[in-house]
Design goal:
Blueprint: H1 2-8, H2 10-29, H3 35-62, H4 68-86, H5 92-116, H6 123-142, H7 148-188
Helix pairs in contact: 2-3, 2-7, 3-4, 4-5, 5-6, 6-7
């Protein structure tokens, strides 16, 4: 049952990976950007990521599939993104704390989702990604006194890792789905 959830939502991982890649490159290419620009870019990413996960959770509800952690993930991302975009005058320390909390909650959600998945569903990849997210979140929280440059570099690297992991999950699930469709078509013939 859980593997069906992953099969039907592979596109959301690819979309999220594309967004993470774009924003990761922007953060690394322009590390000296102003705090306002950084906050707005990160806020936009969090809003889009939150909306994608809210849509996924709604789809899961209608399919009567587990949706709670995906909803939490989406709501937290959306809420923090809206705070970033609407309150750009916050200090870097507060922004770093919010970003760190978001990444840690995302890591916890990914680990929880991976635990709920069956062994051959790619849950190991998602669990590793969750652990990496926790590590990045802790690093962000520990570096709150750092500069905008340092935070942007950390988040840029993190978003590139997110992009790679999401592409891996999307490709992995796509291949399994293709193999199963091929096997079913051959069995029918």
């Amino acid at each position: 049952m859980e593997i069906d959830i992953l099969y039907r939502s592979w596109w959301s991982y690819v979309l999220r990976g594309i967004l993470a890649l774009i924003f990761g490159i922007l953060f690394l290419a322009y590390p000296g950007a102003t705090l306002r620009t950084f906050i707005i870019l990160l806020g936009i990413f969090l809003i889009v990521d939150g909306v994608v996960n809210l849509i996924r959770s709604i789809i899961f509800v209608f399919r009567k599939e587990p949706w709670g952690w995906t909803l939490v993930w989406g709501l937290v991302g959306l809420l923090i993104g809206l705070i970033f975009v609407n309150h750009t005058d916050f200090t870097l320390a507060f922004v770093a704390i919010l970003a760190g909390i978001w990444v840690i909650i995302m890591g916890i959600a990914e680990i929880a989702i991976a635990i709920d998945m069956p062994p051959e569903s790619g849950r190991g990849i998602l669990a590793v990604f969750g652990v990496i997210s926790l590590g990045f979140g802790i690093a962000i929280l520990a570096w709150t006194a750092g500069t905008v440059y340092a935070l942007m570099v950390i988040l840029g690297i993190y978003l590139l890792v997110v992009a790679v992991m999401d592409f891996i999950i999307g490709i992995y699930v796509g291949r399994i789905q293709h193999k199963e469709k091929t096997a079913i078509e051959e069995a029918v013939e």
